[in-house]
Amino acid sequence: MWPITVKIYWDPWRNIPVIKPKQEEIDLLYQLKLSEPGDARPAFPGDIEKLKAALVYEFGTASFFTRFMEGRFLLLNKVPHWDVMYEVVASGNVLGQLYYDPFVSKWRFRPTFQGTYLAVQENLVEVVKADPPYYSGRVVSKSYSTSSRLVAVVDAKGSIRGLGEVREGEGVVLVKTFYDKALPVETSNKPSTIADVLKYNEDGLNALEEKSIKFLERLGRRYSGLSRVVSYSGGKDSLVALDLAVKAFGNVEMLFNDTGLEMPETLKNVEEVSNHYGIKLHIASAGDIFWRAVELFGPPGKDYRWCCKVTKLTPIAKLAKAAWPSGGLNIVGQRAYESLDRARSPLIWRNKWIRHMISTTPIQYWSQLSTWLYVFKYKLPYNRLYMHGFDRLGCFMCPSCALAEFEEIRKVYPELWERWEKVLIEWKNKLGMPDSWIKFGLWRWLSPATAKKRVARHVPDYAVNEWKKEYSLRLNHNRSGLVPITAIKANGNFVIKFNKPLVPSELADVFIKNAAMLGFKLVNEAPLVLEKNGVEFAIRHDEIRLSTYTTEAFEDCVDLIKTIYRMQGCVRCGSCVLWTKPGSVMLTSKGPTPRQTLSESEARVYIEVCPISDQLVEKVVLSLILDDYRAFKRKSRRHV
């Protein structure tokens, strides 16, 4: 599935990973067999604590850790899971998977065949004999005499066939059947430290560094007239990119986006890094816009990212236009192994919203292990949250986070989580949701997405398919309180009825100005009738009536709906002002108001850059009107 994957080799004698083996030594090493993309990282103290706790929970003792992992250089490779799961690598073998189980609020461990084989050899796990067939869910024994939660299931010949879980009242249930029975590779099994790993990876690391610096130097010559700006997030990847940029260019500037949702340690690290390099720091601050906007939009979701538009895109674009009006070369810490989108990303690109900035990444093909070795080699001032076991940094309540990550936030920054939980509780009550909506993070999706359904299967009191009820309540309880009730196409007409007046008298003048800018002509003021392309749009109290239904007329109607919601729900993010020509639009108590006539293309930008248009109307309002939660994917939708 991945177009590019990481290759990590293992030195069996030194018992360490190798990022780039020497040609004369490659036959003495072997490549780790990791799940794609294989972007493993070192295990840190916080990870070790979770691993030990998981092993004690499964086996009643940490002897598995003591025998096979203690003192070794451990790697964790993140793999697909409905929450969080890592492959645990020790002494060149994937010994098991460490994963978070939100239903018991614990980290758990499942040994692989290699891990089970070694545990059986060392008498670290109980053995249960069972006859075939072997399949997950089968009770292989009614009786058991062990305090361990996990046991090895073997056949009559003593061959390991699977992993059993001891369940009270059931017996031993087969939870994993082994098909790949490759024996563990042999290594010296001797202890190793980060110093050992750095020593024998020095040449490979130097080669990566030299190639990245030369790449930046070539770009510097090509774009010699542009300012050098490094986007720093507080994470390790942007830290490495910053260090490489300083080595390549000498003088650079640093840009940090403070979304208002950052963890205190990240804010501290930004200042520390700026002082460490002695470079100018620019902060694109979103202020409290998120906390104001959530009252209108409701909780953000993986498929409902209004938050990124108001806390990231707009503040960054506003600062970039002011600080570097002539353009800039923007260096970011993006890597191909973070996501499939980034794996397909070019090395040089322009963001369509910040066209005057040219972006690039000098570490696109660096592995996570390589970036960490670089950080340790040069003793760079990295964010200490990583040592707690944080795998990603950024907005503390990002819907893209896993439940395991929220649990870490709750422990390390309880006051932050308490503030967000209060918001979730308010929306839970507004939407009539069960407590499980918060506990199992079901708020992280707006639509009944596949991933949401996967979680909901374990939550009997949540009805994942009642999305229309949830969407209606989101609109009913937000600032506008405007909900579409019915949409009927009959006798050539199309009527959309709402629960309350669409254009109150005090907003009529602003609405007409916005509509005129979008190409609508005023036919009558009372009742309000507009015309465009031969179709009349009558807005009478709580309904919009189209004289003729066509796809084009429907999309014109969508523009009017977006205008109405923008007037009644404007959160003053400033997006519409930022991306229109100076002086053409202003924000008032009546919402965005045109001051000048815009061209057709400018008017399209003016309406579509608004997160109310792009997210609330497209993904909530139109889903109800068209009775399809995928309405925003319709072919006729207009884009900027």
Q: How are the secondary structure elements laid out?
A:
Blueprint: E1 9-11, E2 16-18, E3 30-31, E4 41-42, H1 45-59, H2 63-68, E5 75-78, E6 85-90, E7 93-101, E8 106-111, H3 113-121, E9 127-129, E10 139-141, E11 150-154, E12 160-167, E13 171-177, H4 194-199, H5 202-222, E14 227-231, H6 236-249, E15 253-258, H7 264-277, E16 281-285, H8 289-297, H9 306-323, E17 328-331, H10 340-343, E18 348-351, E19 354-360, H11 368-377, H12 403-412, H13 414-431, H14 436-439, H15 450-456, H16 467-476, E20 484-490, E21 493-498, H17 508-517, E22 521-525, E23 528-532, E24 535-540, E25 543-546, H18 551-569, H19 575-578, E26 585-588, E27 591-594, H20 600-608, H21 611-626
Parallel strand pairs: 9-11, 14-15, 14-17, 15-16, 17-19
Antiparallel strand pairs: 1-2, 1-3, 4-5, 5-6, 6-7, 7-8, 10-13, 11-12, 12-13, 18-19, 20-21, 21-25, 22-23, 23-24, 24-25, 26-27
Helix pairs in contact: 5-6, 6-11, 8-9, 12-13, 16-21, 17-18, 18-21
